[in-house]
Each structure stands twice: as structure tokens, then as C-alpha cells.
Amino acid sequence: MSGSGTTAGDDPLQTAVWRLRSRGCWTDAAALLAPHASNAAAALERAGLLVERCLFTGEGWADAEDALRTAEAVAQDDEERGGAASERGRLAYAATVLRVRDRADEARSALGRAAALLAPTSPGRPLLDFRRGLVAEHIAKAPQAARAAYRRAHDGASAHGDLLLLSFTWHQQAGLSLRDGELAEARLGFSESLRIRVELGYLIGTASALVGLADCETEPEAGRLRAEARRLFRLLGGVPVRLSGRLSASAAPQVPAAPSGSPQVVAPRAVTKGGPSGTAPGATPKAAAAKPPVQKAITPPSPTQPEPAA
């Protein structure tokens, strides 16, 4: 999906779609694209919106399946077919991690098919790497493989200037660092994820970044971050659904303070051209490529509940 609606030069349709998407209005955003469903890029983008709705809300599975079938039917080349396969894999992943139905084999198969279709230089390749990392982490329980996939996605997102995908690669790598007890790296990753999402106006993902950062802090800062996350969670009607248990718990997990202290989240900068990483190729914003956290050996997971991500 191209354009975050931050500049006058953005396409009006993409501006409207992004603003609705970033506030969790996926059905309304998809409705704007419905008249263009015969166009492969628009059909794929619409399918991606409805799949994302499933991932964040746990609802709308039939609508997402219908939109995916349409996207698969109108795809004309390997790039478009690969994008549709990537979305098919994400939908199967979402159903599995949200325990709607075990579709783990379908997720692996669809993402593998996407990998065979998408060229190594395809703009959709970093997003595919990220999704394969999610499957490795949350389904295969293989954190080392997940970290390698996240790093590839991070490098690709930096090269393509895909800010929203960078926010997700920072977030997931930070979660692995936190599990490994690397608090400084975890703080950096969650802080960068939060900064980017605030800059882009990606409200629907801000609470998750706040919760992740809170898990790296001690009181009273941790409590302040969780209170803000809880406020946003309620404002958005209890979305993302997987944060429900974290934000309603009476006692949140504590972590020891890091020797270096708590870094502050960088104040948002003006974004000249936004480009959330959606399901169809498009113009993306250029950002300075940030170094991902250093790879470390993984130890058993902490109580942190990772978000299911894009």
C-alpha cells in the first residue's frame, strides 16, 4: 500500500485507505478499493486489508477468504501471484496463532510458494521474509531462524525505505532480545518501533510498541507506558485482541533495570512521504537505515506475549 497521506502529492485514494487502515477501520478502507477489484494491485491491497483485520481482531475470516480468491484470480504475473500467496500464508498464520483453526502447514506452503514466485529484488520480498520469520517464531518455535528472517526483512525494508515494515522488524527483534535478557537492545528496538509508528500515525500499532517498551522498564515508567497503551487499546475498541490479556492483567512482568538507564523515545519527525508496508507494491518513504539489534543466542522465552504482527 503506497502513501500514508502525509503530503499533498499522495494519491487521494491511497491517502484515504491509509488513514482508515491506521485507525483500525479495515472494512471501510477495503470498501474504497472494492470498485477497483478487477485491478490486480487493488485486489491484492484489498485482500491485505481484510487479512490484517483478521490478525488484529480475530474476525472477518470469510470476507478475507473471498478477497483473497479474487486477488488470486486476477493476478497476471509472478509478482502478483507471489503477493497473493504471501497474503494467503499470512491468513493461515493468523488463524493458527489466534487458535481459530490449525493452518500451520498451509501457512508454510503458501509462503514457500511466494518465495518461489517473488524475485530476490522484488519489493515484496522483505515483507515475505518478515512473515516467514513470524511462522518460524510463533509456529515452528525456532527463534534462531526467526531472527535471521527478521534481519533479512529489516535490511530489505531499509533498502526499500519501507518505514512501517521497519517498525515491525524492530519490534520482533526487540522481543527476541528481551527474551534473551538483552535489555539495552530490546529498549532500542521497541523505542524505534514506537517512534516510527508515531511518525506515520499508525495508531493501531502504537499500543503494542508501548507494551513492549514497558516490559523493558522498571516502575514508575513501566506503569506509565502501560497506562497509555491501555488508553489506546480502549480507544480502539480492544484491538489488537492479543493485547487483551496483557493490559487487563493486575500485575505486569517486571524486568531488572539496565545499567545504562532508560532511553527516551525520539520525538516524532515530519514524514515527507509515508509508505506502510502493505500487500501491493507501491511508493514507500525513504528513511535512514537503522542497524538491527546484534544477534545473540536465544534462551527460553520470557512471559512476554509477542504481537502477531503483519
How would you describe what is shown here?
With 310 residues, the protein is mainly α. Helix content is 58%, strand content 0%. It is built from 13 helices and no strands. The protein has helices spanning 12-22, 26-33, 40-57, 61-74, 78-97, 104-117, 125-138, 143-160, 163-179, 183-200, 206-214, 221-235, 244-248. Helix 6 runs antiparallel to helix 7 and helix 11 (206-214) packs antiparallel against helix 12 (221-235).
How many helical elements? 13
User: Mind telling me the C-alpha Rg?
Assistant: 18 Å
How far apart the termini lie comes to 13 Å
Strand content: under 5%
Give a count of the beta strands, DSSP E runs of length 2 or more.
0
Percentage of residues assigned to helices: 55-70%
- SSE run: HHHHHHHHHHHHH
Average pLDDT taken over every residue: 83
Question: How is the topology of this model organized?
Answer:
Elements: H1 12-22, H2 26-33, H3 40-57, H4 61-74, H5 78-97, H6 104-117, H7 125-138, H8 143-160, H9 163-179, H10 183-200, H11 206-214, H12 221-235, H13 244-248
Helix pairs in contact: 1-2, 2-3, 3-4, 3-5, 4-5, 5-6, 5-7, 6-7, 7-8, 7-9, 8-9, 9-10, 10-11, 11-12
Summarize this structure as a short list of keywords or feature phrases.
single chain; 310 residues; mainly alpha
